[in-house]
Amino acid sequence: MASKFKAIIFDLEGVLVEWQRPRNTKDFRCSGLELPKIKYSSIWENLNTGKFSLDDAYEHFAEEEMEEKAYVKLCLEKVFKSVRVNERLANLIRELNASAHYLKICVVANVCREHFEIMKNANLPWEIFSSVFISGILGMKKPDLCFFQHVINAVGLHPSQILMVDAEASNLCAARSFGIYGIPPDGTSVGLVQTLRNLIFNPLPRAEAFMKPRPRVFAKPDPNKRVSIVEDRNIIMNENISQLMIGELLGDRILCREWSPEVDDITVAEAGFYIYLRPEGPCPKGSDFHPNADITSIAYLSIPRPQRIEELPHVHLILEAMASNVDSDGILQTYFDHEVPRTDLETCCNILRLFYSKDRENDPRIKKTEKWVAQCIKNRAYTYGSRCYTTPETFLYFVARLWSDYMPEFLYDSDIEDCIIERLNIPTNALALAFRISACQLMKVEPRLYRQDLTKFVLLQDKDGGWPAGHFFRAEGVKNWIGNRSLTTALAIKIFRWEKANSKSTDGWLSLS
């Protein structure tokens, strides 16, 4: 599952190095305020393709600027000697060279031979570059198509295997017309470095490394990984649903060791009923400590035997309590508390999944709930989320799990796949995007349809291998949205393992368009 890219091309000027504006523009006017005018002149283009000698160019610039030729020469040489190296990119190039030995790293530049010799003094890892394409040496420049054709021929790869970073839109247009995947710097070297790292390095082993238990020398799990957070606020939430879902998602025992709920991890309020928040952790005012059918369903579905299930009431006693806990319309309720009457689409899906997992699909008391779920799918009732779940993707993921695992008869005529396809390419947070892609895989949606979302998701991976927390839940009485980095990352592992096992593509782990 290696990257499809076998070569990366950096533009020298504007990407790897930048011209520093002179502090004293009065003394070096042509290297400051007038430099753009000079750069985009026909004289400059002819100089950079070898049609003008440097001496002739200085003479023309002197006439235009009404300055002495020697002064113009001094100004321009000052500019080329004062270039500032993008150190973050330079360090990334060293990292790529050390980790991705197959990768060809090249440089392109529109610059004359003499000025390039000056720029070679910049502190760049020149020894790493497999090829350097200079317009003044080749006699052709970007964005001329002949320049890019020469680069493609010299690199010896199919254009789709080449990644290019360039600051000029015209250069990117020409490169992409051949099939090269061209991207601009995003204005911050930090963002560009993250994008390039995610395009080149395989996301799966990095995500697995993020999720692995810490060495024994650490007495406790890394709190930044395991806990949930309130979006846009520095509030930590000790909740149960993310931990249970992580344990269910990660079938790998090594990865699961830290994340499978232990006896002390999950709070049981009474008689085997689980609650959302842990009272011992930080909890906002009005937090949810009611026995919860949603969390209880996920717990019984996710905790492996004999870890905890044997110590709890038999699952059929729990199912009886759930089946008896309905509202006036006969819909299964979220809380085992008559003072908190709540129904919730996502909760209904998880309860139904538990019933089906224990061969209780013929229980007449769940039929009205089945009918309601099917009706909500038909009429897109999930579009704005629900009382407890913040995005439509959460419901689509849970109902896709229900269909994928049990193919219940009441969903035969529903258009779940169409519902998921309708959500594709709509902007959302990282966790919702992971739910969306997972739902596509569960419903066997054609991979080319969700490829753009998959690409966006890959590019969100952080340097440590994990993904942003995003959000998917809000506890009863808490208005803020809650997410968990490790839940997003656990979903990512599931997604990329599926892609690795099922992808028909032979050109790497990610196909970009």
The gist of it:
The chain has helices at residues 35-39, 42-48, 54-65, 69-81, 87-99, 113-119, 135-138, 145-155, 169-178, 189-200, 203-211, 223-226, 241-249, 253-256, 293-302, 315-324, 345-357, 367-378, 392-406, 416-423, 430-442, 447-458, 485-502, and strands at 7-11, 17-18, 84-85, 104-109, 131-134, 162-165, 181-183, 228-230, 236-237, 268-270, 273-274, 482-483. It has 513 residues and is an alpha/beta fold. The longest helix is centred in the last third of the chain and has 18 residues, at 485-502.
The stretches of 5 or more residues where confidence is low (pLDDT under 50) are 215-221
Using only CA atoms, what is the Rg?
A: 29 Å
Measured by DSSP, the beta-strand proportion falls in: 5-15%
User: In one word, what is the shape?
Assistant: elongated
Total count of strands: 12
Main sheet makeup: 5 strands, parallel
- Helicity, as a percent range: 40-55%
SS-based class: alpha/beta
CATH architecture of the largest domain: Alpha/alpha barrel
N→C terminal distance: 18 Å
